[in-house]
Amino acid sequence: MPRPKLARVSTTDLRREIERRAVYASTLEVKRVEIARELEQLDAEITALGGSAPSPTNGAKNRRGRTAPRRGRRTNASITRAANKVPLHTALHDVLTGKTMGVSEVAQAVQDAGYKTNSGHFRTMVNITLLKRKDLFKKRGRGQYTAK
Fold first, then answer.
1. Residues whose CB is less than 8 angstroms from the CB of residue 87 and which lie 6 or more positions away in sequence, other chains included
2. Counting CB atoms within 10 angstroms of each CB, which of 10, 59, 74, 80 has the fewest?
3. 49 and 99 in a common domain
4. To the nearest whole percent, how much of the chain has pLDDT over 90?
5. Burial of 90 (0-12, 13-18, 19+ CB in 10 A)
6. What is the DSSP letter of 66?
7. Are residue 27 and residue 57 in the same domain, yes or no?
8. Residue at 81 is within a domain
9. What pLDDT digit, counting tens, does each position of 52-71 carry?
10. How many domains does the chain have?
């Protein structure tokens, strides 16, 4: 059934519709509270039986049925960030001064020169730095860079 044009709907009908939706929303809220209570009881039973009840955020789904993204940085106690005396762009500039190299060669040369990284995507980080820092690096050819 097609919806009526808004200009053709009377204010009385609009008020009735708003009231109808408000009543429906309040009944849904009551239903939600009841379901939340049941869920708490189920979690308590699961915990009492030795299981682990999911936390509200781990399995929570939004209104489209998708799980919510995790917030914050995931950390692992055994992995620490590598400490370097100079930033990546400076280390790259030092390695590329007077030379022309490809991205993979530069990434390896920087690490050989003592730059530490735990990244699994270090080559990509090098490539991004070479592309962004046009004030320090010049592209000689396809994938070939040198220091300015």
1. none
2. 74
3. no
4. 39
5. middle
6. P
7. yes
8. no
9. 766 655 555 556 666 666 66
10. 2
108-140: burial string, b at 16+ Cβ within 10 Å, e else:
bbbeeeebebeeeebeeebbebbeeeeebbeee
Q: What does the pLDDT look like over 21-51, one tens digit per residue?
A: 988 988 888 899 899 888 888 888 888 888 7
**Position 10 pLDDT exceeds 90:** no
Q: What is the CATH number of the domain that holds 100?
A: 1.10.10
Residues 45 and 92 in one domain: no
Distance set, CA 17 to CA 4, 7, 14, 28 (Å): 13, 15, 5, 16
Does residue 100 carry a pLDDT above 90? yes
Burial of 145 (0-12, 13-18, 19+ CB in 10 A): buried
Q: What are residue 73's phi and psi, to 5 degrees?
A: -85, 135
Whole-number Å distance between alpha carbons of 123 and 130:
11
Q: Are both 60 and 95 inside the same structural domain? A: no
Are residues 100 and 58 located together in one domain of the fold? Answer: no
